Amino acid sequence: PGLGAVVLCGGKSSRMGRPKAWLPFGGEPLLARVVRRIGEAASPIVVVAAPDQDLPPLPETVTLVRDAVSGRGPLQGILAGLTAMEGRATSVFVSSTDAPFVHPELVRRMETLRSEGDHDAAVARAQGHFHPLAAVYRTSLRVLVADLLAQDLRRPYYVFERVRTRFADEPDLLAGPALREADPHLWSLRNLNTPEDYAEALRDAGF
Known about the structure:
The chain is α/β, with parallel strands linked by helices. It is built from eight helices and nine strands. It has a seven-stranded mixed sheet, sandwiched between helices. Strands 2-3 form a two-stranded antiparallel ribbon.
C-alpha cells in the first residue's frame, strides 16, 4: 500500500534503431510487458512518454503523461511521473521501458529497503553501476527534482546525494529471500540498449 510505479519510455532508442516500447517480447510489446510485471507489485502506474511518441495499447488503469520538454533525460521524466502520482502514492518505483526481466520481487525489495530507516529514496547499485531507473523515490521529492532541473542539474544522482538514500548493493538486494529465489542473478537490472542486447535477452527468455 502506498507504492506506485512510474515507467519511462520517452528515450530516443538511438542505439537500438527502433522504438523500444514496441519491441516484441514474449507475444507482447516490451512496454506492456514491463507495465504488467511491475503492476504485480505496485499500483497505480504512470507511463511517461515523449511529447509526440506513439505507444502500444496499455491497460485502462495506466495513466499516460507526456514530458513537458523532450530531450532532457530521465530526471525530466521522473518529475512528470512524480507530479502525476502526487496524492495517489507515498512512494514510487521508477523503471525504464527496456527492462524485460524486471521482477515484482525487485519492486517489493526496493521499497522494503527504502522504508527501513525511513529513507527518501533507495537505488540499486550492482555490477559496478547505479541504477536510478531501478529505484524507489518518495513522491514528495517532486519539489527537489523540479528545483534541480531548474538549475539544469539533470543527473538522478543529484537527487540521491541530497536526500536520505539507501544504496542497495547486490548483497543487500539478495538478502531478501523472495528476490533471491525469484531472480538470483538480478536479471531485473538488465537493460536493452542495442539490437545485440535484445537478441540475447530473447534467447535467455526462451523466445
